[in-house]
Write a structure and sequence with these properties.
The protein is α/β, with parallel strands linked by helices. It contains 14 helices and 14 strands. It has a five-stranded parallel beta sheet, with helices on both faces. It has a five-stranded antiparallel beta sheet with strand order 10-9-8-13-14, covered by helices on one side. It has a four-stranded antiparallel beta sheet with strand order 6-7-12-11, with no helix packed on it. Helix 2 links the parallel strand 2 and strand 3. The relative contact order is 0.12.
Length: about 425
C-alpha cells in the first residue's frame, strides 16, 4: 500500500511542486491547508490546485480564531519583536500548522509529515521541532534536503519552469519571483529581487497596505479596549480575536501602517532580507504598550522586558512546545492580570500616535505626579535621603580615589 504523508500545503510555488513530486514518488498525499486569514488567497482554488497535482485528499482547517487568540495575542502580551523589529508573524504560525498536521496524521493513520521549508531557513526548524515535540516517533520528509529533489529543482526558476510545463498555476513568475507568506498577522516577502539588500521593493509587491504617501491626508482616530492584556473591542464594538485583528488590518492598511524592511539573523546562522506588512499587529503592539504604561508596575515591566528578547528568540527559533515556554506562559499571564482599559490612537500616513489611555487599575496618580500643589501627596524632602543612600557607593568611591590621588601626588613630590 502507498505510504501516507500529510503535507503542510499553502498553495504556493514550493508546496505545489512538492505535492506533485511526492505523488510521483508514490506517496498518498494528504494536503493540510490552514485557513489563517490569508485574504489575498482563494482557498477553494488552492484546494483544487492540490487535487490537480494528484493529492488524495485536501483537509482545510479553519484556525483563524485559534491562531489569533492562542498565538498572536500570546506574543503580543510580551510586546515581542525579534531583533527589535520583526513582529514574528510567520514564526508564530508555524507551530500551529505543525500541530494541525499532526492531528490530521493521527486521524488519517499517516506515518509521514512533510513541509516545503528549505534547508537554509528558519521554517524547517520550526516545523520539525514542533513535529518531534508533538509526535516524537514521526517520520519527516523534507524535500529541500533531499538529493534527488535538489538535483531536479536547484532553484525557484526550475520550479517555475516545471509548473508551467505541467500546467500548474502558481503565483510566482520569472518577472515576480519573490516568495510571500500570508496570515491574519502579516504578509512576509523574501527571495527574488529582495535577495539584494540594496534593491528597493516594488510598490506593486505590497498587498495589505497602501504606501504612506498615498494614505488619506487626514488622521484616523480609533480606540482599543483591553482586558487582562487581551484586546476585546475596537471603537467600543466587541469582536472575536480574528475579527478584531481583521478590522485593525483594514484600518491600518488604509493608513499605510505596518511596513518593515529588515535584514535579520536566521537561526541557521546566515543573514536574510525580509519585507513585511503587519498593519493590525503594529497597531496592537503600540496600543498594548500604552495600556501597560499605566497598569503595570516598573519592576514587573522591566523584568518582562529583560525576558522579552529571549522569548522572541524562542518563537523565532521554533521552541514553542517545550517546558521553558510553558513556564514563560505562566509568568506573562501573571503580569497581565491588571492590564485592562482603553487606549486612544491616531493614524496618519504610516504613523501611529497614542493620544490617551485610561484604566480602572491605573497606577498613575495625578496628585503624586502633578507639578502643581499636590496637597501633601508627595514629600519632596524624602528625595534627599533617597539620593544620599543611592549615591553612597559613588561617594565612598570618590573619597577613596581622591585619597589615592593625594597620596600618589605626595609620593611624586618626595621624589
Amino acid at each position: 500500500m502507498p505510504k501516507k504523508v500529510v503535507l503542510a500545503y499553502s498553495g504556493g510555488l514550493d508546496t505545489t511542486i512538492i505535492t506533485k513530486w511526492l505523488v510521483m514518488k508514490g506517496y498518498d498525499v494528504i494536503c493540510c491547508l490552514l485557513d489563517l486569514g490569508q485574504k489575498v488567497e482563494n482557498l477553494e482554488a488552492i484546494k483544487e490546485k492540490a487535487m490537480k497535482c494528484g493529492a488524495k485528499k485536501t483537509v482545510c482547517v479553519d484556525a483563524k480564531e485559534e491562531f489569533v487568540s492562542d498565538y498572536v495575542f500570546k506574543v503580543m502580551k510580551w510586546n515581542a519583536r525579534y531583533e527589535g523589529e520583526y513582529l514574528l508573524g510567520t514564526s508564530m504560525a508555524r507551530p500551529l500548522i505543525a500541530k494541525k498536521q499532526i492531528e490530521v496524521a493521527n486521524k488519517e493513520g499517516a506515518e509521514y509529515v512533510s513541509h516545503g521549508a528549505t534547508g537554509k531557513g528558519n521554517d524547517q526548524v520550526r516545523f520539525e521541532m514542533a513535529y518531534y515535540s508533538l509526535k516524537p516517533d514521526v517520520k519527516i520528509i523534507a524535500p529541500w534536503k533531499d538529493d534527488e529533489f535538489l538535483k531536479q529543482f536547484p532553484g525557484r526558476q526550475e520550479m517555475i519552469a516545471f509548473a508551467q510545463a505541467n500546467n500548474i498555476p502558481v503565483k510566482a513568475t520569472k518577472n515576480q519571483p519573490w516568495s510571500s507568506d500570508e496570515n491574519l498577522m502579516h504578509i512576509s516577502f523574501e527571495a527574488g529581487m529582495l535577495e539584494d539588500p540594496w534593491v528597493k521593493p516594488l510598490p506593486e509587491m505590497f498587498e495589505l497596505t497602501v504606501g504612506p504617501k498615498n494614505a488619506p491626508d487626514k488622521t484616523t482616530e480609533l480606540q482599543i479596549d483591553f482586558e487582562q492584556g487581551v484586546p476585546i473591542a475596537v471603537n467600543g464594538k466587541k469582536l472575536s480575536p480574528a475579527k478584531l485583528l481583521e478590522k485593525l488590518n483594514e484600518i491600518g492598511g488604509e493608513n499605510g501602517v505596518g511596513r518593515l524592511d529588515m535584514v535579520e539573523n536566521r537561526f541557521v546562522g546566515m543573514k536574510s532580507r525580509g519585507v513585511y506588512e503587519t498593519p493590525g499587529g503594529t497597531i496592537l503592539w503600540q496600543a498594548h504598550k500604552a495600556i501597560e504604561s499605566i497598569t503595570m508596575d516598573r519592576d514587573t515591566m522591566h523584568l518582562r522586558d529583560k525576558l522579552m528578547p529571549e522569548f522572541a528568540e524562542m518563537v523565532y527559533y521554533g521552541f514553542w512546545f517545550c517546558d521553558k515556554m510553558a513556564a514563560l506562559d505562566a509568568f506573562i499571564d501573571a503580569t497581565q492580570k491588571y492590564v485592562t482599559g482603553t487606549v486612544r490612537l491616531e493614524l496618519y500616513k504610516g504613523n501611529i500616535m497614542v493620544t490617551g489611555r485610561k484604566s480602572p487599575h491605573s497606577l498613575y496618580d495625578i496628585k503624586v505626579a502633578s507639578m502643581d500643589d499636590d496637597r501633601g501627596a508627595y514629600n519632596q524632602k524624602d528625595a534627599i535621603g533617597f539620593i544620599r543612600l543611592n549615591a553612597l557607593p559613588q561617594r565612598v568611591q570618590g573619597l577613596k580615589r581622591r585619597s589615592m590621588r593625594i597620596g600618589h601626588a605626595k609620593t611624586l613630590a618626595k621624589k
